[in-house]
Specification:
mainly beta; 7-stranded mixed β-sheet; 3 helices; about 5% helix
Length: about 1200
C-alpha cells in the first residue's frame, strides 16, 4: 500500500500496489530509494511466507506467491514489479532488507537459513550483482569476506541486519543469526556479529544475545550517531553500550518486539546507562502490546495505543443477561468490555475459548495458549464476570498431551451447561471448570503434522442445543466425529466418524462447527486452508452425507478460509460466517445466508476487510420484539458489533439507595440528537430532557454510539441519567423514587429510555441484585525500587512501614459492613508478593473475617519473573462464599509517614457484570503540621480509559488543600485539556468533593495512589463507610451525624422539631427542622397531569415540561391521557411505516386478527427476471435485485 496525505485534512488515502502479485505472502521489509521520487520512485520489498491462523490457531503455511519468495524491485512507484535474481536463494525466504544510508545502490538481504547477501546495483544498466557474505550457501562468498557462520556447518535460521554509515568512513554493520533448536517454541540466545569495514570482516561480539524466538522476535538497530550503542529486541528490549558485548534490559513494555526505531535517525542524542541520567533519545517500539514511546533512550517506555484498534482477537463471548463482553487475544490475554469504547486487560499470555456462563454470567472462563506442542494448557475462571480476579489453572491439561496453540473451549447450550475442552481428546466439566473428565479417546489418530509440530488435535467442538448428548468434534486434518445417542465417552464405541476424505470433505483443518438449534442432524462445518473449492459444508443427516454450502454464482462465498459460523436462534435458516479477508469484489469478511447456506450476501458494511475469527449472535426480547446483536472478533482490528439500539445503565448505590446512573449505548442513527427519559415502576416519567445530569448535551457520534458534549469535553461516551443525587433536567433522584400511586409503597426508579434520531433504546434498572460470594476488587503494590514514584522522599531500604487493609461488603439494603481490619507491616523495598502474602495470612487468621467466610488469596507471578507474554503483578483478593452482598471492596488506609514510596493499586471496583458501579471515597489526612512537601500521583481508571494526575504538595498543606487541588485538576476546562495524561475524553469528571477532605469517585473501576510526601496519609473505602463522625456529615442541619464504631456506618438522628435551620436550598420554604428535614419542599403543580413539574434548584422557580410519549412503535399513535396523566397508545392500522427491510416495499401497519396489536409489514420485492437459469434474490444490504446465473456442476469430471 502507498499512502498520500490529503492537503489540510490530516487524512490519508491508501492505494494497493502490486495487485495479486503478493497474495498470501508477507512483506518483511519495504525500502525506499531516497534519491528517487514521483512516478519513478524506486521501491524494494522482501516477500516472504505467510500463515493463517483460525480461532483455534490451526497454523497452515500458505503457498508461495506465483513469482516465488525473494526481493522485488519497482522503478515506477509500485505500479510494476520485477523479482531480483539472487543466485542460490531459489525458494528461500527473505528475513530482512537494508540499504546503505550513504549508497542507495548497495543492499544487504537476509535469507532464512542462508545468511546475508550483498547486492550492488549498476545505475546505468539497472542490474544487480549479488554475492553471499556467509559461506556454505552454494556460491562463492563476496571477495575477502570472513568471520560469519557457515550456513552448512553452523546452521542458523532468521537473519537480521542493521547498517550504520554516517558521512565519511566505512559502513558499520551488525548482524544477528537466530539459532533456536525448535522453529515454534524454543527460546534461544542468538549470535551477534559486527563489521567495521562495510561487511567484509566480521567478528562475533558476544556468545549469546538476550532471549528471543528467532522466527518471531528479532529486532536490531544502532544509535543514530554512535555505532557502539544499539538496541536488540527479542522477547524483551535490551540496550547495549559496548558494541553488543553485553546488554541491559530496557524499560518495561509488552514483550515480543517486532520493530524499534529512533525518532530522528539523523539527530544526535544521549544514550548511556540509565542510572547516569541525561538520556534524551526518543525511541519508538512496536510489540505484541502495540506501540510504545521512550523519551529517555529506552530507560522507560509509555504505551501510545489510544485510538489504535489493532487487537488480534481469537475469541469473543457476550451474554444477553449482562452488558459485559470478554475476548481472548493473541499475546494480550483476556480483555473485558462493559459498554464504553475501551477494553480492560484482565489476564496475560495468549487467550482463547472465552465463555460467559449461560446461567450465571458472573462466571466466566478462558483457556491460555502455549507455543510448544506438548506444553500443558490452563483453563482459567472468574467469579466476578471477568472484571476482577481470574483464578489461574483451575484445570490443566495432561502432561505431554498434544493440543492446539489455542485449544477450543465451549459450553453446552442446553440445561446444566457443562463445558467441553479439546486437546487431542475431548474433556467435559460439570463443576464450573474445577475438574474435567476425558470423554473421548484420541479420535484423530497419531499422525504428526510439521506445520504445528504435533500430532492431530481437536480444533472445533459443537454441542447440539436440542440433543446435548450429541457432540460434534473437528480435527486439524479435517476429520469430524459425532457422539452417539448415549453421549460422549472415553471409548471408541461412543463415537461415529462422519467426516474426512471419505465423505468428500477437504483434508484440512476444521475451524468451526455449528449445529441447528432445532435439529441436531443439521450442522455446518467450516474449513481453513488455501485451496480451490468450498470452505463450508452442510449435513442434514448427522454427517451421513455432506454438501457444499458456499452458494453459487454471484451469491457464492469467496474462495478463502472460513473461520467461524453463527446461527440465529430464532431463525435457524439465517446463518452467518466469518472468513479471512476476501479479495475484490467481496472486500469483506462477514457474510449472511437466509436460506441455510444456499446463497450468501455480504454483511460487512463498516467492518474492515480483516480476518474474523469468531461471530456470536445474541437475541433478547424487548416489548415483544426480538432484538438481535452480532459480535465480530477480528484478528488485527479489534471487535465490532452489529446491533439495533442498545443501551446499558449502571447503578451506583449509597446507604441503600441509588445515587448515580451512568448510561452507555450504541446502534443508533449516526450524528443524531438524543433525549432521555427516566420511568418509575408505575410508568410515571419522573425526569426527561436533552441535557444529562452532568450538563452534557446528549447525542450520537459517527459510529452511532451515545456521547455527551459540553464546552469542557467532546465525544465522551457516557451519559448521566443521574449524578450525585440529581437526575436529568435537575430533578432530584428522590422524585424518581416517591409514591406516585398513593398506596404507601414507593414507586422506584425502574427504566431508562434514550431516543436518538427517532429510534428508541430501553434498559431496565436491576435494583442492585445481591448474591452469595459477590464480586470483589483486587489490590496490588508497587514500590519506589521498581521506579513508579520518585525517590526524593522514599523510605530507605529496610525501613519499617505499614498499611491497613479492610474487606468491606456492600449491600443494597444499607447493610454495608467492614468484615475485618488488618494492619500489615512491611519493610521498604520488600517484594510486593511477600507483603501481600502477609496481608492474606492476617485476613485469613482474623476471627471476624472467618465468621463471614472470607478467604484471602494472592495470585500472579513474582515481580520481574517473565512468562511468555507478560510480567504479571501479584494481587490480593478475597473469596467470600458465605457472604450475601452486591460487591466487596478491599478498603485501604495508611497514616502519614507510614508508607512513603509505595503505590497502592485498587482494581476491579464495581460489579459491572451485575450493572453496578462502586461509589468510593478517597479521604486524605496529614500530620498535625500539615503535609511535608512532595507530590501525590492519582490515577483513575474508568470505562473511558486512564486519567493520571500529579499534584505537587507544599509544606503545611491541609487535606482540604489537597482535595481542592485535585478537584481543580479534574474539573479543568478545555479540550483535550491541560494534562496530557488525563485528556478530556478519558476524564469522566466524576470526582466530587465531600466534607472538605475527601474525593468521591462514581465511575472509577480502579484507583492508583502514589504518595511521595511523608506528611500525607489516606483512606479508600466505599462512600458510606466511616471512621470518624466528620465522615458522616450529610450537610443536613436537621440531623445529628455520628459514626458507629462497631459497624463503621453512619447514623443520622433527627434534631428536635422547630429548631431553626438554613439549608441554602431555594426549593424549600419555612426553614425550621421537621422530622429531620429543613423546611418544606416547594410544591410545583400546574394542575396539568400531562406535564412534569419540579422546582429548579438554581432559581427556586417552578418549571414544567410536557410529557413526551413515544414507544418507538410506528404502528401506534402515542399521547398523554389527560385523565390519568400516563402515556397511552392507539393503533394505526393501514398507516405507512418502515419495516427496516430494504427488500420490501409498500410497508403498512397490519393489525392482528383481534385488532390488539399491529406490525409493520411490507411486500417482498419481485426479483424474478423470468429466466429459469438464474437465481433471483434481493440484496438485503442495498435493496437491489441480484439475478445470478445458475451454476450447473454435478461434480462428475
Amino acid at each position: 500500500m502507498i499512502g498520500t496525505p490529503a492537503a489540510g485534512s490530516g487524512a490519508w488515502t491508501w492505494t494497493p500496489k502490486g495487485g495479486s502479485l503478493f497474495d498470501l505472502a508477507s512483506i518483511n521489509d519495504v525500502v525506499l530509494d531516497p534519491t528517487t521520487s514521483g512516478l519513478t520512485k524506486r521501491i524494494y520489498v522482501a516477500v516472504s511466507s505467510g500463515v493463517t491462523a483460525s480461532a483455534s490457531e490451526s497454523t497452515i503455511t500458505g503457498p508461495a506467491p506465483a513469482q516465488g519468495f525473494g526481493i522485488y524491485e519497482s522503478n515506477s512507484d509500485g505500479s510494476s514489479w520485477a523479482k531480483l535474481s539472487i543466485a542460490n536463494t531459489t525458494g528461500s525466504k527473505p528475513t530482512d532488507l537494508e540499504m546503505d544510508p550513504q549508497n542507495s545502490n548497495l543492499l544487504f538481504a537476509g535469507f532464512l537459513g542462508k545468511g546475508i547477501f550483498k547486492g550492488v546495483r549498476n545505475p546505468v544498466t539497472d542490474t544487480f550483482t549479488w554475492c553471499p557474505l556467509n559461506p556454505g550457501t552454494g556460491g562463492a562468498v563476496c571477495l575477502g569476506t570472513t568471520g560469519l557462520p557457515d550456513a552448512g556447518s553452523s546452521p542458523f535460521d532468521f537473519v537480521e541486519v542493521t547498517v550504520f554509515h554516517p558521512g565519511g568512513g566505512s559502513a558499520v554493520l551488525y548482524a544477528i543469526f537466530g539459532n533456536c533448536t525448535d522453529p515454534i517454541c524454543s527460546f534461544c540466545n542468538s549470535r551477534i556479529y559486527k563489521s567495521t569495514d562495510g561487511g567484509t570482516t566480521w567478528s562475533q561480539q558476544n556468545a549469546a544475545a538476550p532471549d528471543g524466538y528467532s522466527r518471531y522476535t528479532h529486532v536490531l538497530t544502532t544509535h543514530p550517531s554512535d555505532h557502539t550503542k544499539l538496541l536488540y529486541g527479542g522477547i524483551g528490549l535490551s540496550l547495549s553500550y559496548n558494541s553488543a558485548a553485553s546488554f541491559q534490559p530496557a524499560g518495561n513494555q509488552h514483550p515480543d518486539l517486532h520493530e524499534v526505531v529512533f525518532a530522528n535517525p539523523g539527530a544526535a542524542c544521549t544514550m548511556q546507562a540509565c542510572n547516569m541520567g541525561g538520556n534524551n533519545c526518543v525511541i519508538y517500539a512496536a510489540n505484541d502490546g502495540g506501540f510504545y514511546r521512550s523519551t529517555d533512550s529506552g530507560c522507560t517506555f509509555t504505551p501510545r495505543n489510544d485510538g489504535l484498534q489493532i487487537t488480534g482477537f481469537q475469541s469473543i463471548a457476550a451474554s444477553a443477561d449482562t452488558p459485559v463482553v470478554i475476548g481472548g487475544t493473541q499475546d494480550n490475554g483476556t480483555v473485558y468490555f462493559s459498554g464504553s469504547s475501551t477494553w480492560a486487560h484482565k489476564t496475560g499470555n495468549d487467550s482463547n475459548g472465552t465463555v460467559i456462563d449461560l446461567d450465571t454470567p458472573t462466571k466466566t472462563y478462558d483457556v491460555t495458549g502455549a507455543i510448544c506442542p506438548n506444553v500443558q494448557r490452563d483453563v482459567e475462571r472468574s467469579t466476578s464476570g471477568g472484571s476482577n480476579t481470574w483464578w489461574p489453572k483451575t484445570f490443566t491439561t495432561p502432561v505431554n498431551e498434544a493440543a492446539s496453540f489455542y485449544p477450543p473451549l465451549v459450553q453446552d447450550p442446553s440445561q446444566q451447561h457443562p463445558l467441553y475442552l479439546g486437546t487431542n481428546r475431548l474433556y467435559q466439566s460439570t463443576n464450573d471448570a474445577i475438574n474435567f473428565s476425558q470423554v473421548s479417546p484420541a479420535l484423530g489418530g497419531n499422525q504428526f503434522f510439521a506445520d504445528i509440530q504435533r500430532t492431530n488435535v481437536i480444533t472445533a467442538i459443537a454441542v447440539a442445543p436440542n440433543k446435548p448428548a450429541r457432540v460434534y468434534v473437528g480435527y486439524y486434518d479435517g476429520q469430524i466425529w459425532l457422539s452417539k445417542a448415549g453421549g460422549p465417552c472415553s471409548n471408541m464405541s461412543c463415537w461415529d466418524s462422519i467426516g474426512g476424505m471419505g465423505k468428500g470433505l477437504p483434508q484440512t483443518t476444521v475451524t468451526w462447527i455449528a449445529v441447528d438449534p432445532t435439529d441436531f442432524m443439521t450442522a455446518y462445518a467450516a474449513f481453513s486452508g488455501f485451496f480451490s473449492g468450498p470452505h463450508l459444508y452442510k449435513t442434514t443427516n448427522a454427517g451421513s452425507t455432506w454438501t457444499a454450502a458456499n452458494g453459487s454464482g454471484l451469491t457464492m462465498l469467496p474462495n478463502v478460509p472460513v473461520n467461524t459460523i453463527a446461527i440465529e436462534p430464532s431463525t435457524p435458516l439465517n446463518v452467518w460466517v466469518g472468513t479471512d479477508s476476501a479479495p475484490a469484489p467481496y472486500l469483506t469478511s462477514v457474510f449472511k445466508s437466509t436460506d441455510g447456506g444456499m446463497s450468501w450476501v455480504k454483511f460487512g458494511n463498516g467492518l474492515p476487510n480483516v480476518p474474523v475469527f469468531e461471530l456470536q449472535i445474541l437475541e433478547r426480547k424487548v416489548q415483544g420484539k426480538i432484538l438481535g446483536q452480532v459480535y465480530a472478533a477480528t484478528h488485527g482490528r479489534g471487535a465490532f458489533i452489529l446491533t439495533q439500539p442498545n443501551i446499558t445503565n449502571f447503578e451506583g448505590w449509597v446507604n441503600g439507595g441509588i445515587w448515580d446512573i451512568p448510561v452507555y449505548g450504541d446502534g443508533y442513527p449516526k450524528n443524531s440528537t438524543c433525549e432521555m427519559q427516566i420511568l418509575q415502576s408505575d410508568g410515571t416519567i419522573c425526569a426527561q430532557g436533552m441535557i444529562d445530569a452532568r450538563l452534557g448535551t446528549m447525542g450520537t457520534d459517527g459510529q452511532g454510539k451515545l456521547v455527551s458534549n459540553s464546552p469542557n469535553w467532546s465525544g465522551q461516551d457516557v451519559l448521566w441519567a443521574c449524578f450525585d443525587g440529581t437526575c436529568v433536567n435537575n430533578v432530584p433522584i428522590a422524585d424518581c423514587n416517591d409514591d406516585e400511586t398513593g398506596d404507601g409503597i414507593p414507586d422506584l426508579l425502574s427504566t431508562v429510555l434514550v431516543k436518538c434520531g427517532g429510534v428508541l433504546g430501553i434498559d431496565k434498572v436491576l435494583g442492585c441484585p445481591q448474591q452469595n460470594n459477590p464480586p470483589g476488587s483486587v489490590l496490588s503494590l508497587d514500590q519506589v525500587l521498581g521506579g513508579p514514584v520518585t525517590a526524593s522522599t522514599a523510605a530507605p531500604a529496610g525501613a519499617a512501614q505499614q498499611f491497613g487493609v479492610l474487606p468491606i461488603v456492600q449491600a443494597a439494603n444499607g447493610a454495608t459492613r467492614v468484615m475485618c481490619d488488618e494492619t500489615v507491616p512491611y519493610t521498604a523495598g520488600e517484594p510486593s508478593a511477600d507483603i501481600l502474602t502477609r496481608a492474606r495470612d492476617l485476613i485469613n487468621a482474623d476471627a471476624a473475617c472467618q465468621v463471614g467466610g472470607v478467604s484471602a488469596v494472592v495470585t500472579g507471578l513474582p515481580q520481574g519473573q517473565l512468562d511468555e507474554d507478560l510480567i504479571a503483578r501479584p494481587t490480593l483478593s478475597v473469596d467470600a462464599p458465605g457472604v450475601l452482598g452486591s460487591q466487596i471492596m478491599l478498603g485501604m488506609r495508611a497514616g502519614a509517614g507510614e508508607f512513603a514510596g509505595t503505590c497502592f493499586n485498587l482494581e476491579g471496583l464495581g460489579a459491572t457484570v451485575l450493572k453496578q458501579i462502586l461509589i468510593s471515597r478517597l479521604k486524605f489526612s496529614t500530620l498535625p503540621t500539615g503535609a511535608s512537601g512532595g507530590s501525590i500521583r492519582l490515577i483513575e481508571q474508568s470505562p473511558l480509559g486512564s486519567c493520571q494526575l500529579t499534584l505537587p504538595t507544599a509544606p503545611g498543606d491541609t487535606p482540604a488543600a489537597i482535595v481542592k487541588g485535585f478537584d481543580a485538576m479534574f474539573q479543568a476546562p478545555g479540550i483535550p485539556g491541560p494534562f496530557p495524561d488525563c485528556p478530556s475524553n478519558r476524564n469522566p469528571r466524576d470526582a466530587v468533593v465531600h466534607g472538605g477532605d475527601s474525593l468521591i469517585f462514581v465511575l472509577a473501576t480502579g484507583l492508583t495512589l502514589c504518595v511521595d510526601d511523608p506528611g500525607v496519609g489516606f483512606l479508600a473505602v466505599p462512600d458510606e463507610v466511616c471512621f470518624t463522625d466528620s465522615d458522616c456529615d450529610d450537610h443536613n442541619p436537621c440531623s445529628d451525624d455520628a459514626c458507629d464504631p462497631g459497624t463503621h456506618l453512619c447514623i443520622h438522628r433527627p434534631v428536635q422539631d422547630g429548631v431553626p435551620c438554613q439549608d441554602t436550598d431555594p426549593c424549600t420554604i419555612g426553614d425550621v427542622c421537621r422530622n429531620g428535614i429543613c423546611g418544606a419542599p416547594v410544591i410545583c403543580d400546574d394542575h396539568n397531569p400531562c406535564t412534569i413539574d419540579w422546582c429548579d434548584t438554581a432559581t427556586g422557580r417552578c418549571v414544567s415540561q410536557p410529557l413526551v410519549c413515544d414507544d418507538g412503535d410506528p404502528c401506534t399513535s402515542d399521547f398523554c391521557d389527560q385523565g390519568t396523566g400516563k402515556c397511552a397508545t392507539r393503533l394505526l392500522p393501514g398507516a405507512p411505516c418502515d419495516d427496516g427491510d430494504p427488500c420490501t416495499a409498500g410497508d403498512l401497519c397490519v393489525p392482528d386478527p383481534l385488532g390488539l396489536t399491529a406490525t409493520c409489514q411490507g411486500t417482498a420485492l419481485a426479483c424474478n427476471d423470468g429466466n429459469p437459469c438464474t437465481v433471483d434474490l434481493c440484496d438485503p444490504n442495498t435493496g437491489q435485485c441480484v439475478n445470478s446465473p445458475l451454476v450447473c456442476d454435478d461434480g462428475n469430471v
